[in-house]
What we know:
The complex is a heterodimer of chains A (about 110) and B (about 120).
Chain A: E1 4-7, E2 10-14, E3 19-25, E4 32-38, E5 45-51, E6 56-59, E7 62-67, E8 72-77, E9 86-92, E10 101-102, E11 106-111
Parallel strand pairs in A: 2-11
Antiparallel strand pairs in A: 1-3, 3-8, 4-5, 4-9, 6-7, 7-8, 9-10, 9-11
Chain B: E1 4-7, E2 10-13, E3 19-25, E4 31-38, E5 42-51, E6 54-57, E7 65-66, E8 76-78, E9 87-94, E10 105-106, E11 110-114
Parallel strand pairs in B: 2-11
Antiparallel strand pairs in B: 1-3, 3-8, 4-5, 4-9, 5-6, 7-8, 9-10, 9-11
Amino acid sequence: GxxxxxxxxxxxxxxxxxxxxxxxYSDSASNYFPWYKQELGKRPQLIIDIRSNxxxxxxxxxxxxxxxxxxxxxxxxxxxxxxxxxxxxCAAFPPAGNMLTFGGGTRLxxxx
Amino acid sequence: EAQVTQNPRYLITVTGKKLTVTCSQxxxxxxxxxxxxxxxxxxxxxxxxxxxxxxxxxxxxEGYKVSRKEKRNFPLILESPSPNQTSLYFCASRxxxxxxxxxxxxxxxxxxxxx
Lengths: 112, 115
């Protein structure tokens, strides 16, 4: 089955700096890659996603890039703010699968 | 309001005492799933269901049971809970892939402690 690895597991940045989280996946047939944000004590919520026919997608301060050849995708957050502090999960959806396979998560801390 | 609900939100129980965590969605989603979340291990899938009466094991099914008798409900059953099942549990649902969003919607979570 699909295997998703996520790095780093923790990331600390200064407010205003950029943050980058990287994920690799194993199933070359996977075609959907979402990113979820989980604030403390809350449920994961979708913040951005990308399909395999697109190399990059941007939504205000967040962007996701996908390299299908290398089987990796990344989340980029620019001009970080304290409210960006949370755990971020990447995931992959293989056509043969039924639900998302998640990476291990990255705890992002934005210091004021 | 479109949502996934879970009950109870918090539960403390003792080893061996059967319990059920309920999950319900009002979006007419075909797929439903249970995940457990443990520190450093991310979200691991326990069981999933593709439709009524169709269920299958995820990555960590041992010690759990599920049923899908109605489309909107997908309860998680622990017949004989053990301390290693202490975790945060999430139910999730989504549409079938074809023609709809792939987005998974999560319930609010159930924090289970087994002593």
